[in-house]
Amino acid sequence: MNVSRVWAFFILRMIAGAIFLTHGIDKWFRMDYNTAMFENYGLTRELMLSVGALEILAGFSFLKGMAIKIAAVVLTLIMAGAIVIARFSFGLIGGYDLPLAMFAICLLFVFTNKRNHSFSLILSSTRSFYQNIFHKVRKTNG
């Protein structure tokens, strides 16, 4: 696999994991604000806490590189709900643009080979990349 692609998946996974983790933590630390926001859409406090807990677990899963496909499926469903229930009426700009981007990122992890998500692949791809360069340099120098 291309080294650039491996690193792109890794960086994307780290950024998505950090975003979901912080959004989940925010739902728990600003509970009153987020409960009011969920209730505006006819949703319960329990659902808000559940979504927050799932975002924390899935974000941590992305960061650790464990059960990424399962986490991505869960987050895809959460983002679909956020788009349809809360953000669609605001339009794309300032409305569902971020949830749509996060939805697309999660879909990428759902539909790609899970081998692309592993840190060991990054290490082996980077090592083979540099070994190939070293081998080419050695061949040209004699």
UniProtKB/TrEMBL annotation:
Keywords: Cell membrane, Membrane, Transmembrane, Transmembrane helix
InterPro entries xrefs: DoxX, DoxX-like_oxidoreductase
GO cellular component: plasma membrane
A Pfam family hit: DoxX
Domain of life: Bacteria
PANTHER family documented for this protein: INNER MEMBRANE PROTEIN YPHA-RELATED, OXIDOREDUCTASE CATD-RELATED
Protein name: DoxX family protein
